[in-house]
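Subject: Predicted fold for UNC-50 family protein, 260 residues

User T.R. writes:
Posting the sequence so we have a shared reference for the thread.
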Amino acid sequence: MNPHISLPRQHSSTFGGIAPSSSRSDAVRMPRFFKRLFKFPQMDFELAIWEMTSLMIAPKKVFRSIYYHKQTKNTWHRPDPSFTYLLALFLLLTALAWGVAYADGVLPTLRITLVFIFGHFLLASLAVSTLAYVLVGRLLGPGSGEEALEFGYCFDVSIRAFLPVWVVLYVVQFLLMPVVAKDYWISHFFGNLLYFVAAMYYTAITFLGYNALPFLQHTELLLAPVPILSILFVISLFGFNAAKHLAPVLWCGATLRKHV
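User M.O. replies:
I've generated the structure tokens; pasting them so everyone works from the same file.
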């Protein structure tokens, strides 16, 4: 399934000449999302898989398709938890792998699983979504008119931006840990490069997500972290091994010392 919707970007508060009827108080509500939370037959897992593939190779396509959703559902947010469920499942599998490799027993592995899914993914995504809802809506919003940033859409952007972080730091880094956690400069370089790529991916997808909304202005400001991340990456090459100090499993109380 590969929708191709390409409409010109417009900085206006209307869509297709029709002013949306939703107010900002309605924008924060996600009743349809919660109603479909356990209705698995109604979830579009095919679309979620297409989005995951596209986010890694052509992320702009994912956010182009929201125009079609806005026209048919009159909301930017997709009240379908299929993407969240799939990514949570993938995190479960990688958490088990990290647990088998670095945890001592079943309970530590369970702790890693819970921290990965509910801490790193859901809680962090909710925190970023809340921050974006407040700051992006106020600083980059139209300032007037009925169109408003939806909290549900902010959550959509956050969980989709987390996908490349999972791929790079939870999958690729796990496979390369015996190499990138060594005390050699080349290990520092490739290990730190993983974190740099993950952060750049997260920033780029976040920008594309909000840039797709026609009523937001100056969304290029969301790319401000790019030069900062570039400088930090260069500085980190002089002695700081990100893989050895920031690996996801370390935030769960596990250790790397006996495995690298």
